Amino acid sequence: MLKTKKSIIFPIIFFVASVFAIAQSFGTSDLTKRYLERANSEYESGNIEESYKAINAVLRLNESSGIPANVTLFATQVYTKLLQKIKTTKDYSKFGEITLNLEKYTVIADSNIQRLVKDIYAQQEAELQAKKNEAQRAELEEQRLIYQQQLEEQQKNQASFIQAMQASQENVMSSIVDLGDKMAGAAEESAKSNHMVLVAVLVICVILIFVFIIVVLAIRVAAKASSRQAAQFEATLKLVHGMQQSNSNLLLGSITDLKALDGLGLRSAGSSRWGVDALPAPEMNEEEKEELKQLAIKCEDLGVKIDAVSKRKNNSKNISELVYKLAIKLGCNQNTAMAYFCAAMVYDAGFLAIPEDVLDCENLNEEQKKLIKDHVTKSEDYFDFVPELYRKIFDDAARYHHENEDGSGYPNGIKGDIIPQIAKIIHVAESYNSLISRRNYKQIRDKESAIQELLEQSDKYDRAVVEALDSIV
Predict the structure, then answer these.
(1) What share of the chain is helix, strand, coil (3-state, %, to 5)?
(2) How far apart are CA 164 and CA 350, in angstroms?
(3) Could you please report the per-residue DSSP string of 130-165?
(4) Which pLDDT belongs to residue 176?
(5) Residue 313 Ramachandran class (φ > 0 left, ψ -120 to 50 alpha, else beta)
(6) C-alpha closest to that of 342 among 318, 315, 324
(7) pTM
(8) Which of 279, 393, 406 is nearest to 343 (CA)?
């Protein structure tokens, strides 16, 4: 009896499930057809935004089961049309949403759409640079007017000064003539006053010569000041011309790949990307500057604690300053270099998780060596205060700064360009600092021999970083 019931129940369940699946498939197909018809109708009517909304609904309905070829083809047409409109009207309100959808539905992103996206990114960058150029030109024009006003004022003051000195000279000459007349009359009255007249005349001549010398010196000083003002004004005009030329060159070189336009320009790529940050960093607003300032303060406090447990006095300060200089030398922009500076203060935060008796031990066993090596995986436990924008840089600095170029390092054994930039720089800076400041004075290297030792170990260190170090120490 039980077997008979089972033989009846299972076919019924299978039948109901099949009917449900078929119904659901027909329901999805029907919705897809209606949305597709609506998208096509709006597209033909020129309502590209409405067609875009409808085709997105079709994409969402079919993303789990697979997007049909006809939907892919039509979606590509709609997205192309909308991107062309955005490029023409320069209304970027939907551009961010479109790029996210293209990342999600990659099948519709053909070469034409990719080119339009790059063109719009470049167009946005050019508009931003044009605004900056206009502001710079306005500022330089204002400085030019100020210098011109100063020059005109100086010339007026010089003319007034010369007129005043000439008037003073005329008054002195008039006084001398009057005095001479009076003294001549007195000589006629008394021959005894001849000696006094002669002395007075000599004194007056000396005074006259002294006044003349003062007038000549004053005129020369005023002429030099006028010359300096004129030269400064001419230099300002040249600066205006040079700035306009450099801004034009910058605009011509501002078209970069999509990834290079993201965020603040912060990256942690490998050595094959050295110099990619040569373009100026996007200027931070006051809130971002304050955030980075507070981050640096917190990193400094944590760095002091790390130095204390690892018995390395001023290590975080020395390494972070060297990392900052290397980042600038290697072509990183200011924002990236500052982020590297902060991360380099706390890259060894994992030592805080190692027992103190292990850190103090001179002869380590295998288990203790492994425990110390594991510090690279424990640092991120102390990075809760780091903003999300900088978190990857901090994690890369802590985890990969013992990786070698040939893959013989730890913890992951990665090599070459896979190793993040920040980790490569810290690896070189830490090794160099260790070579020139070892506790045993017999092992201390001078700067030249320390650099040479790093260059000879190309299997461990990025040669570009070591050469940059050689040029700054």
Answers:
(1) 80, 0, 20
(2) 77
(3) HHHHHHHHHHHHHHHHHHHHHHHHHHHHHHHHHHHH
(4) 54
(5) beta
(6) 324
(7) 0.46
(8) 393
